[in-house]
Amino acid sequence: MVKRKRGEHGFSLIELLVSVGILLFMMAVIYREVSKLHDMSRTEDMKRDVVQNAREALDQLSRDVHTAGFPSKRMFHNNSGYTACNISPCVNVNATPENDIKVATAGFVVIAGNEFVVEGDVDGDGAVDSVGYRVIPNAVANPTCPCLQRSQVNKVTGDPKPTGWAGSQNTTANYSTILENVVDPGNQTYFTYYDSTGTAISPGAGTSFPSVPNTIRTVQVTLTVQTRSQEAMRKFRPQMAFTLTAKMGNY
Q1: What is the pLDDT of residues 135-154, one digit of tens each?
Q2: DSSP state, 161?
Q3: d(CA 112, CA 99)
Q4: What pTM, to 2 d.p., does this model score?
């Protein structure tokens, strides 16, 4: 039989329980801090996604507006008449610039607080396109809206207005979402228009060709976009505001 030396003893049950309790407390504190860091990282990832998606969408919009109106009738004809050529060899366009598939209508075709449509060879393929942008309100079938949508279709002979504006172009029927979770400002005004002097031009409830003022040179886009989900700690969806002024390059 082994005898225990005097002063030698093990841990009591109470000491073990206290040690385990302290260890569990420290682990809980560490886990909480790690969880906070994970939530912060997830939130920053969502913010970066919003910024990247908004930048790509607005860059595309700026390029489209800058290309709007190209090629115009001034490239083929003089001011005395649309059928009179002033270049060699003569390029015959036997129609008006408004409904001819070879020529872009100079300026905006449709302007509204939440939509605009322009024409131009926006991708440099030699074909004139009808290009539209619009922000649609929240819909039950699409919980990521309000959202920014874009449409691009080849121009067809006929009225330059989209079918949704009593015209011939299929622009309205081909919209697709390019930026989700746009915040509704309440007044449904996302696009503001200015002439060459910087004076704001009101689109009213919406104006279409030929009533759109031909003095419009720029459109200012103001969008507030929120992340796709809430922050875990604050139960809040972070928002970021974006403003872009796109200027026409052909007029």
Answers
A1: 988 766 677 788 999 999 99
A2: S
A3: 22
A4: 0.79
